[in-house]
Amino acid sequence: MSTPIALIDCNNYYVSCERAFDASLVGVPVIVLSNNDGCAIARSAEAKALGIKMGDPIHHLRDKVRAHGIRVLSSNYTLYGDMQRRVIAACEAFARDHEIYSIDETFLDLAGFEDRDLVAHARAMRKQVQRWTTIPTCVGIAETKTLAKLANAAAKKQSCFDGVADLRDEDVRRDVMQAFPVGDVWGVGGATARKLTDLGITTAGMLCDMPMKQARAVGTVVLERLVAELRNVPSAAVEMVEPQRKGMAVTRSFGTPVTTFDRLMGALTEYAMRAGEKLRSHGLVAARLTAFFHTNRHKPDRPQYAGSRTVTLHPMTNDSLELIAAARRAAERVWRDGYAYTKAGIMLDDLVAADMRPRTLFEDDGDKRARLMGALDEINGRFGRWTAVTASQGFKREWKLRSEMRSPSWTTSISEVPTVRA
């Protein structure tokens, strides 16, 4: 018998985080915007009821916002990340181990809890999360990750489950799968869903009954393993260990257009610093760096230009200062005066594990610089990102994203902690 798995999912997570610290948002329509205050990426149930779709541009919603008194907020990722930590802390006593799937979803290994009533166990966990964080959740229980995802969706959408769906019972599992659209099954992409629909397979139940060989022919071994998981057979369709990354990027749109090289270099410095931090956190080094920047492609009536240049990192590195120097070399070669740039970024390719990187004949001992990078990461981790920066980045950050409606960082900034007066 397989070990039961639970997936706990925070409902309307970004909105729920905001409501935890601002009671005036409870019961009213709320939307949270993407980077640069562009599109709706989180909506309360009240906002969804008004017909606001995921990804709707805010400039298309102005009339609806005024007419219905919708509260509009900028993304506050610092708050959301810290609240995720608190949600996981509330769950720790209810599982042997956990695996973070996304900022609002976490898989829980329930080995050792099999002799309990797992539905009651999950309800107790939901209550503890709500008591510690105020955030509402739903829980799906099954014996494979694919079924746990499906169970979570059922717990969220079907009131009969009251927030917790257990699909270990075959009859319950079959009833849920027969009503579940195949395009909504975890791991079924749009192209695969169209192929399955053309074959008359429209529900998760039909996909479960699909012959394994046919599943491989339609969607390669990935779909074959997915079918196995729907049949309650755990597989490697979702790996417990994240595969090694081959590349990474740090890109941002500017809050205001950038017209000077020094200001552009300030932004690229920040992105290179962040890229180095990400490399070090994953224990990787990079062989190539690409710096790019471009004007607003959605305004063809204005002068357009896009610059991009790739440089080789020799030796391979995750040293932020070396990445900054490489970004400057790349940007200098393609910079053009007279344009208003609205986006830039750093991309890193050919990543390998730091302890597996090829050595060069005249390579210096990097222990001193490694300690410097470690100290930099520790300072910024303890006192907040960008506490310690290079001179070329500066502190003003004129290029930073628009975030005009961001809530305070209630839990991570001492200057923004709410004040209570009796």
Task: Walk me through what this model shows.
This protein starts with a strand and ends in a 39-residue tail after the last helix. The chain folds into 3 domains: 8-165 and 403-421, Alpha-Beta Plaits (2-Layer Sandwich); 180-243; 247-389, Dna Ligase, domain 1 (2-Layer Sandwich). The protein is globular. Helix 11 runs antiparallel to helix 12 (320-334). The chain is of the alpha+beta class and 422 residues long. The model is unreliable at 237-243 (pLDDT under 50). It has 13 helices and 13 strands. Helices cover 38% and strands 20% of the residues. Strands 5-6-1-7-8 form a 5-stranded mixed beta sheet. It has helices at residues 13-21, 45-49, 62-68, 77-91, 118-133, 145-157, 170-178, 190-198, 204-208, 212-230, 261-281, 320-334, 367-383, and strands spanning 5-10, 30-33, 40-43, 71-73, 97-102, 105-109, 137-142, 164-166, 247-258, 284-295, 306-317, 341-349, 352-353.
Summarize the structure.
Belongs to the DNA polymerase type-Y family. By secondary structure, the protein is an alpha+beta fold.
